[in-house]
Amino acid sequence: MGNSTLTNTTDRVEVKVDLAERSYPIHIGSPILNDNKLLNSLLAPHIHGTQVMIVSNVTVAPLYLKYVEDALTSYHTESVILPDGEQYKNIESWNSIFDALLNARFDRKCTLIALGGGVVGDITGFAAASYQRGVNFIQIPTTLLAQVDSSVGGKTGVNHPLGKNMIGAFHQPECVIADTQTLNSLDDRQLSAGVAEVIKYGLIRDVPFFEWLEQNIDSLLQRDPAALSYAIQRSCENKAEVVAADELEAGQRALLNSGHTFGHAIEAGMGYGEWLHGEAIATGMVMAVDLSQSLGWISSVDVMRLRNLIKRSNLPEQGPAELSSDDYLQRMAVDKKSEAGKIRLILQKSIGDAVLSTAFSEQQLRDTITANSSTAD
Ligand code: NAD
Ligand code: GLY
Known about the structure:
Blueprint: E1 12-17, E2 24-29, H1 36-43, E3 51-57, H2 61-71, E4 76-82, H3 91-103, E5 111-116, H4 118-130, E6 136-141, H5 144-150, E7 155-160, E8 163-170, E9 176-179, H6 188-205, H7 207-221, H8 225-245, H9 260-270, H10 277-294, H11 300-312, H12 325-333, E10 345-350, E11 353-357, H13 362-371
Bound molecules: nicotinamide-adenine-dinucleotide (NAD) and glycine (GLY).
């Protein structure tokens, strides 16, 4: 079928997100999608009614939609195929899911399945949070970024032209199914973008994982199955722990936004889709550690370790020449971590030790942005 590349190898692990009655499993491994019986057995306990709406996009659907449909032949399944790209993570795409649900007369017991990367996952989750005041949904992430981050934790939403992810809701999935073989059809740039979020977990809270990445980054980029599985498992374990402790981001969950305030300014400032989310976050983490160093916190050795890992992952260390520090500051003020217009950032005391902080001046912030931006030719 299509150009998909699923074969029968390796096995599976399960990571649990512990949220009392809303707890759910993350199944990681392969084969999953091309094993009808297995996929059905993983999905069925989480499908409450008989109606299933699969949401995907024009790139992913030709590769993997058939597998999901084939596992669900005993249900009434329909699909919505969205356009592909961060620029379509908007209210119009969100609304097109309601059109499909209403046209098919789907009731409040229906289940939505997100099949795709973080864009499809975030829009679908938000549609599930809103349709008839909230229905069931399942994530089948197919990018590395979505498998290690966006499919887990229940943050859903769409972008606004004035700010990234500004419209949304918390709505946890019923389960997450990450088939690592779907990553074989991802291009190298998208794989690297996912690695940025993997590095994030090491940077903010997991020194051994950061060290493992320093030793194994080449295998990961070469898609060694064991390296990929371990990176996804460890990332999900980190995310599950944080989400279980602080589901609605009253405190420590904010640390998962390392590099994101800078990164969101790049994504929105350059036009959604121009810089990949993971690329913008990579540069954002470099800026965050640079600012932390100028505050006398993180050591120059740790800063170099992060820069090296970012560089070896083929991720950008420098922000785009097109954006001035004014552009950043304007965008950064529109951030969910801001309080009364005051920018709050995730900064680093060292690798593995992150804090949410306002302990920097506007000038220090501007200097960091300028020092870590490409210069126009
Ligand atoms: P994406 O969804 O745009 O996917 C990247 C590209 O890969 C797209 O072109 C997509 O069609 C394609 N693709 C997906 N799976 C594929 C496959 N298996 N083979 C070939 N091509 C494939 O981007 P992303 O990096 O997955 O996600 C980024 C989004 O996730 C951003 O909008 C970001 O804000 C969001 N995000 C959300 C959270 C959260 O907690 N909800 C966390 C991190 C990021
Ligand atoms: N990606 C940030 C979070 O899920 O909290």
